[in-house]
Design brief:
The chain contains 13 helices and nine strands. It has 401 residues and is α+β, with helices and mostly antiparallel strands.
Length: 401
């Protein structure tokens, strides 16, 4: 399995460690220009925060930030941009490969059109400060965030906004309404009060509310930015990973646990985040599996509705429709499986959202992070210069001479 994953991985990753300077001033979302540049590259990249021993102070535990790219050219561009816009030190190096007691894979609680931070107001506190502070608290741990630019994600956000504002429906929703609409039409025709069809369908429409308007506003603001498809995993002890999950920001949406694994090892390879197409196909097939099972049983002659009519209306023994009851039991089991099944909701983050969890902390002097060092210049810090107003003359010679 691991060999197959490595075969599907991108070329060997180029890693760098990003160290903030003690004199640096880092506002929240300080990686936005870098992320927009990486969006244009259309290549996956990975950010890793890891609790490990310091290189500069032996025995001291610090939080290091590593950034990996899939090509040398992209890594060089990222390093140049970081050094140009931020006061940082770039050190070549990859995160350590370690095995952790617990790994949880995250997904979004609701549709990805809703952001995990408020896009209508600026961020006052840097969420990365909370993540790093939590990561430095209990034992060893790591946070992995793999991302890639996804221009097609805007279409999904547009569909969500259109469904909320214009009442448009997806193909799957249209099929469902067509199936259940037949029964609704029959119910209207059988109603002795002869309710008008227009009134019947109008009663089923959603009413707008201030909260609904706010959700549409947030989704519309997110749609204007670049979108990234992400995989986020947390490593560490059970208490630590749950604390890290709570440290991530939350707005109209939030990150939740999708899958938990034990004794997993971090990977320095950078894999392309999945589109989730197989998840969608699996969810759709499981949702319609009861009807598919009944249709298949009827087509091959395993289920005859007339036998059920004979049992319930003509009082025949249930053994007479034994095969039909078995088919109905299987269909009922598939129905409950479709209800209880858990599907992964895609993590699609805008530039504002992703820069809230990938970047440098603001409280550098208060957090146990690996601090960078300024490069050594050719000249010393103190330089001796001739301050005489007559540089061509001797210093001990006065102007009158």
């Amino acid at each position: 399995m691991s060999q197959n994953k490595q075969a599907r991985a991108e070329p060997e990753a180029v890693w760098m460690e990003v160290r903030p300077m003690i004199t640096g001033l880092y506002a929240p979302q300080n990686f936005k220009p870098v992320l927009d540049m990486l969006f244009g590259s259309r290549r996956p990249f990975k950010a890793v925060f890891v609790n490990m021993e310091s290189d500069r102070v032996p025995g001291r535990r610090v939080i290091k930030m590593f950034l990996g790219c899939t090509s040398r050219e992209t890594a060089d561009h990222v390093a140049n941009v970081l050094q140009a816009i931020l006061n940082v030190q770039i050190v070549p190096g990859a995160p350590p490969a370690r095995k952790y007691q617990r790994k949880i894979e995250l997904h979004m609680e609701q549709h990805f059109a809703l952001p995990i931070i408020s896009l209508s107001s600026p961020i006052e506190h840097n969420p990365i400060d909370v993540i790093i502070g939590t990561l430095s608290g209990i034992g060893e741990g790591a946070v992995e965030i793999t991302s890639v630019g996804d221009p097609g994600a805007r279409g999904g956000i547009f569909q969500y906004v259109a469904a909320k504002t214009l009442g448009t429906k997806s193909v799957e929703k249209g099929v469902e309404d067509a199936v259940f609409g037949i029964g609704a039409e029959i119910a209207v025709q059988r109603d002795m009060r002869e309710i008008r069809r227009q009134s019947f369908w109008a009663a089923g429409k959603k009413k707008t509310s201030p909260w609904g308007d706010f959700l549409i506003k947030e989704a519309t603001a997110k749609m204007k930015e670049n979108q990234f498809r992400c995989n986020i995993s947390l490593y560490g002890e059970p208490v630590l990973v749950q604390s890290l999950l709570g440290a991530f920001p939350s707005g109209t949406n939030r990150l939740r646990t999708f899958k938990t694994e034990h004794n997993e090892k971090t990977d320095s390879h950078i894999h392309m985040p999945s589109h989730g197409i197989l998840q969608k196909v699996k969810k759709t097939l499981l949702k319609w599996s009861p009807l598919l099972a009944l249709g298949f049983a009827y087509a091959v002659g395993l289920c005859n509705p007339q036998n059920l009519v004979d049992v319930f209306i003509r009082d025949k023994l249930w053994v007479y429709a034994f095969k039909e009851f078995v088919v109905l039991g299987i269909a009922a089991g598939l129905f409950f499986m479709s209800i209880l099944s858990k599907s992964k909701k895609a993590i699609i983050l805008s530039t504002d959202e992703l820069s809230a969890i990938i970047g440098l902390p603001s409280a550098v002097g208060k957090l146990p992070v690996e601090i960078g060092t300024a490069p050594t210049t050719r000249r010393g810090l103190v330089e001796t210069r001739d301050t005489s107003p007559y540089p061509t003359e001797r210093k001990d010679q006065s102007p009158s001479e």
